[in-house]
Design goal:
- It contains 17 helices and no strands.
- Helix 3 crosses helix 11, helix 6 crosses helix 10 and helix 7 runs antiparallel to helix 10.
- With about 425 residues, the protein is mainly α.
- The chain starts with about 25 loop residues before the first helix and ends with a helix.
Length: about 425
């Protein structure tokens, strides 16, 4: 699955609005996106089925699998949480640069087309967040995408240094600044994570009352996302990763992966063990702090958070390099390559996953209403089985059609042509 660098010029007389040609696809990018989407799916469903959203801590502790759930949950926090969305956001920035390179090489008006593309994505994201999935990232990616667009001619140094600073400290800086300005807290409103709020959402779900659930989640979004300002921290978090992705795109490393496997292997040999150890220590500190088993030193929380902030991009880099190396190994490629089918239909699969959350956790319509009644082990099984089905269905769809359904619509609304 060697990647072919994007050619310069309008070779072959391609229309500026032609889709990605077979010799332009970066197969590694599709697979990386597919693997990252599985991790995002798992992390999202764990969070939504976990305490504070659709289940109380007491309900989850009363499950017969509670001990196993906690152990598996800690393992997944170590290996998946923050790393999957870091990789997904990084790939957005890298894809931005590749698309800019491709469109400009064909003489297309990249600025106009990409601004329209981001505007369509923003509309998709707002609809998705309001009516389907409260934790939607598409609206945030569109907003951060506009900022990345403004930085499209920035120097390599600005993209690298600025991206690192935002990626490492964006969310922390937001929390510090809000605390400094006295803006943290729920502003006189009840916490959306309290048991009362969770039980109210469960009651609306059990009653099958979609509009009451809609109201409660709209209230959650307003309090947590807007008033508490988490949109600011996550905006900086995403933009930092976008900038790093664009910086890597400029280097051409992924486009030349077949020729640079040795480089990816050397980076992997450093970042993968370093990231695993650092994040492992951060998880141990967090675990011991929760059970008050640390010496009396107020800096443990800061130490653990700092380790986590540093470990996440390092470990995500290790994963990315391991996947690229694996794709150039006969045995590993057999297991990794199928993720590319889902990665080529990432938008469609991402939207479909929100229907899975709703079907499993909510009692609206045909929903199973399992919120508070399933733990991490069941979530892991459901996500893995569902994603395997998404891979298979994506393969079948792409054998007949060039784009996924929502990818086709996005393209149609952007370019005015399929």
């Amino acid at each position: 699955m060697g990647a072919v660098p994007i050619s310069s010029g309008q070779a072959g007389g391609l229309s500026p609005l032609s889709g990605v040609q077979p010799d332009e696809r970066v197969g590694e990018l599709d697979v990386l996106r597919g693997v990252a989407l599985y991790g995002v799916f798992l992390a999202n469903m764990m969070g939504f089925a976990g305490p504070g959203l659709m289940a109380t801590e007491g309900q989850l502790l009363a499950l017969p699998t509670a001990g196993f759930d906690q152990a598996v949950g800690e393992l997944l926090q170590w290996l998946v949480a923050d790393k999957a969305n870091s990789l997904f956001a990084f790939l957005f920035g890298l894809g931005f640069y590749l698309q800019m390179q491709r469109l400009e090489s064909r003489g297309a008006d990249f600025d106009r087309l990409y601004l329209r593309r981001l505007s369509v994505l923003l509309v998709f994201g707002v609809i998705h967040a309001l009516f389907f999935w409260v934790w939607d990232i598409l609206n945030l990616y569109a907003l951060a995408g506009f900022a990345l667009f403004a930085l499209r001619r920035a120097s390599d140094r600005l993209l690298l240094v600025g991206g690192l600073l935002l990626a490492l400290f964006g969310r922390t800086a937001h929390e510090y600044l809000f605390a400094l300005g006295g803006l943290e807290g729920w502003h006189g409103m009840p916490s959306p994570y309290a048991d009362e709020a969770v039980l109210a959402r469960q009651a609306a779900s059990a009653a099958g009352d979609y509009w009451d659930l809609f109201r409660l989640f709209a209230q959650y979004t307003w309090v947590d996302w807007i008033l508490e300002g988490f949109i600011v921290g996550w905006f900086m978090y995403a933009l930092g990763r976008f900038m790093l992705g664009a910086w890597v795109g400029r280097r051409g490393w992924l486009q030349q992966a077949a020729q640079r496997v040795g480089d990816f292997r050397r980076v992997m040999q450093v970042t993968l063990p370093a990231g695993l150890v650092a994040e492992g220590l951060a998880r141990i500190i967090d675990l011991y702090a929760r059970f008050d088993r640390l010496p009396e030193w107020g800096g443990w929380g800061l130490a653990g958070e700092t380790l986590h902030l540093l470990a996440v991009p390092v470990l995500a880099t290790g994963y990315a390099c391991a996947i690229v190396v694996g794709l150039h190994s006969v045995h590993a490629r057999r297991w990794l390559a199928p993720f590319g089918h889902a990665g080529r239909m990432a938008l469609t699969n991402y939207f479909t996953q929100s229907l899975v959350y709703a079907f499993v956790l909510f009692g609206v319509g045909p929903g199973l209403g399992l919120a508070g009644r399933i733990g991490t082990i069941e979530v892991l099984a459901i996500v893995t089985a569902t994603y395997a089905a998404q891979i298979a269905l994506s393969k079948v769809w792409l054998a007949r059609f060039r784009y996924g359904p929502l990818e086709w619509l996005w393209r149609r609304l952007t370019y005015g042509a399929a």
